[in-house]
Amino acid sequence: MSQRNGFFRAWLGDWFKLRKPGPMWESFLLGAACIALFFALWWFVTRGESGEQRIVGPLTLPSPVETFHVSRELFSPEVDTVSNTLVTLRRVCLGFLLAIAIGVPLGVLAGCYPRFNAFLSPLIMFGRNIPLAAVLPLLVFMFSGEQRKVMFIFIACVAFIIADTAQAIMDVAERYVDTAYTLGASRWQTIVKVLVPLAMPAIFGSFRVLFGLAFGYIMLAESMKNPGDVGGLGFEINTFQRRQLREHIYLIILLIPLVALAVDLVLFWIQRQLFPHIYGGPGWLQRGVRLGVHGWDDLKRVFIRYEPPALAAAVPSPAAGVTPSAAKPENPSP
Known about the structure:
This protein is an all-alpha fold.
C-alpha cells in the first residue's frame, strides 16, 4: 500500500514540474481522458427524454445519441460530405500554396535586409489585423467562383507567412553568417545555403499552425455561394442551418477537426522527413531535396578534381635549413 501511495505521489508531483515531459502512453491516455470527459459532459447536460428534463434543451444541443444517429445521412448522395470535404481541402491548399509562393520570398528578403523589412511592415501590420469578414464582400466584386475563395485564403495567410519567415531568418545566429563570410561565401550563397536552411524548420512549423487557421477561414468564405459554385463544408453548414438540422451541424463541426488533424499528421510526417536532425525520422525527403539542390555540385566532384592552392608558409620550415629560432630576429642590445 505504501508503494502505491509513493508511486501516486511521485506521478502527481510530475504534473507540477516545469517543462518535464511525460511518457508517450501517459500523453495518449490523458488525451483520451479529455475526449471522454467532453462526451460525458455532453451526455450529462442533454440527458432526459423531454426538454423539461434536460439542462440544455434539444433545440439548442441534441444529445450524443441523437447526433450520431443521423451520421449516415451525411454520406448519402444528396449530401455527399466526402466530395464537399475534398472541395474544401482543394481550396485551402491552393490558397495556402499561393500564400507560401508569395510570402516566403518576401519574408526572406525582409529577414535579410532590415530596410526592406521596414518597407513591408505597414502592409504586414495591415494584413495581420484586417477583419477578414469585411474583406469578403469586396472579393465578390473582384473575383468570381473558385477564385474568390482561393484569394480569401491567400489574403488571410500571406501576411502571417511573411512575418513568420522574416522572424525565423532574423533568429538565425550571427555566427553562422560570419562563418560563411570567413569561408568565402558570397551574399547570395549565405542567404540560400546558410540562412534559409537554418530557418526552414521554424518556417515549416509555422506552416502547420497557419494551415489550421486557413482551414477555419474557409468556412467563412464558403458561406457565400453564387449559382454555379461548388459547395463545401461551409456551404453544408449554412444549408443545414436553413433546414434546422442541428444534429447535422454538430456532426460537421466534429468532422472538421478530424480532417484538420489528418492534414496536420501528414504535415508533421513531412516535417520529420525534411528535418530529421530536429524531429527525428529517416529523412528520405531531406535526401531527395539535397540531391536536387546539391546534385550538380556532387556530380562535378566526381568528374572534376579540385585541389586548393598551396599556401605559402609564413615561417620557413626546418627542412629548408632554417629553424624557427634562427629565423626570429634578435633584439639589439642597448
